[in-house]
Design brief:
Layout (H helix, E strand, L loop, with lengths): L1 H19 L43 E5 L4 E5 L5 E9 L7 E10 L7 H6 L18 E5 L5 E3 L10 E3 L3 E3 L1 H10 L5 E5 L1
Parallel strand pairs: 1-9, 3-7, 6-8
Antiparallel strand pairs: 1-2, 2-3, 3-8, 4-5, 4-9, 5-6
Length: about 190
């Protein structure tokens, strides 16, 4: 009986140890601060007032990304004028950003680096999450000009269609991989309410 109890205890400890190394979907990207390792600027540029809600999405130029926050939709308007729509997750109430920016860089299989404020909120977070199924950025990341926002994949596809993040735009894996191949640095990005 003691042997069975010892075996059960060891199995339980192994199970908890294995679970401790898998990072659950982390949806609170919190305060990035300006020490974000992916941020290209010391301070974000001033983009002025948010765009008016009535701005028609169809008047954007070719090679433009339009994000309709309220509709949880990202539309890529190709240089030929074709519109490709994708469902997305957007920032939670109070964590949303609106305006115009552009793509500055892209990364395949990005590393996720939780900021110091994220680690203070959740001390179990590592300094770096390497590419893989536990990475909250998924398989692709498209970095926007302010250096703090991204269009990226996710390790929590159930969040797509909801207000789940702290500002970034999440996409299904297949969708972000397709978009990644089409957009280039300099692509205009319009974020609407």
């Amino acid at each position: 009986m003691k042997l069975l109890t010892l075996f059960a205890t060891a199995l339980l400890l192994i199970t908890f140890q294995a679970q401790a190394q898998i990072y659950e979907p982390y949806d609170d990207y919190g305060d990035y601060g300006y020490g974000d390792p992916y941020g290209p600027y010391e301070l974000p540029p001033d983009y002025g007032e948010p765009m008016p809600e009535h701005r028609p999405r169809t008047r954007s130029g070719g090679g433009t990304i339009v994000i309709a926050t309220r509709e949880h939709t990202l539309v890529f308007i190709t240089p030929r004028g074709e519109q490709l729509a994708y469902p997305i997750a957007v920032g939670r109430q109070g964590k949303q950003w609106y305006g115009t920016t552009h793509v500055v860089s892209k990364r395949k299989h990005p590393e996720w680096r939780p900021t110091a404020s994220m680690r203070r909120k959740n001390p179990k977070l590592p300094d770096i999450v390497k590419p893989g199924p536990s990475n909250p950025l998924g398989t692709r990341a498209i970095y926007l000009a302010d250096g703090l926002l991204r269009i990226h994949g996710t390790n929590d596809p159930s969040s797509i269609g909801t207000n789940a993040s702290s500002g970034c735009f999440r996409m299904y894996r297949e969708d972000v991989e397709e978009l990644y191949e089409m957009v280039k640095p300099g692509t205009r990005v319009i974020v609407e309410r």
